[in-house]
Protein: SPFH/Band 7/PHB domain protein
Organism: Glycomyces buryatensis
Amino acid sequence: MDPVGALFLVVAVFLFIVLARSIRIVPQQWNYIIERLGRYRRTLEPGPRLLVPFVDSVRAKVDLRERVVNFPPQPVITADNLGVQIDTVLYYIITQPTSAVYNIDDYLAGVEQLTTTTLRNVVGSMDLEKTLTSREEINARLAAELDKATDKWGLKVTRVELRSIEPPPSIRDAMEKQMRAERDRRAVILQAEGTKRSEILQAEGEQQSKVLRAKGERDAEVLRADGQAKAIQTVFAAIHKAKPTDRLLAYQYLQKLPEIAQGDANKVWVIPAELTKALGSIGNAFGGNTAAEDEEEEEIEVDTSALELDAEAKAALEAAQQAASDVKDLSGGRTQAQGELPSSES
């Protein structure tokens, strides 16, 4: 190879190296920290950028996306001197790349140590029960303390989460027994309340049933009494309209006397004074003339078709008419007997 060709090749390689070192393409959500001769020069933002070759150099590449760091479980002692293992998760972003590069050697290690110490301070002021039930409060206090402390590092702590809180095995056993006893107590209370509610509902149902039954019986008695009252009124009106005579009433009275004497307990019974009047009326009935009897019988006989009566009233009228017919038969038999008596004596 001739010297000219070799020189051309060396120049070409040099130009390629210079071009490669002078052009930088910065990805999205990244920043490059540029130093010129060991001193901070500027921060390259996303896109193609030009550098002075052999003078400018990239000090650090900073990722601006939100990052998640999971720290290993840390032993923490609570206010009641119980040791627990707490696993934390930290969310942060870099807001000032130059501060994150120049203000701290390793910001991840610094955040981890700061999270551990802050967690111990926060949890150390709480007892175990409050620690287990106050996750939101612990998260908020941790986020506030870490955000304040990491501000000079160019970091922004967005959120801190307690992933797990593990008490000692003996404490876990005691807590399980306590929770089991609490659940048993609640189960007994719920069962007692259910039994109480069931008995109350059953008693209310029985009460309502008795009330409804009593109301039904009352309404039935009222309707029955109203029916009997209307029946009595109807019978009384029918009898009053038929105009029965004293002889008919006396005859009916004599028919009821045997019913009064019925029964083993009726050994002695008193004949009322009205019985003599009834017998007198019967005697007059047998001694009266036929024309008067016919006239009175015509007064007794009533056209029931003109009356709108119920079954009981019609039955009462039929009984009255039957009694009148019986009286008529008895009167006719006696008249015949009186007509035959002189002939037999002669």
Q: What stands out?
A: The chain has ten helices and nine strands. Residues 15-63 form one domain. The first strand starts at residue 23 and ends at 26. Confidence is low (pLDDT under 50) at residues 288-310, 333-346.
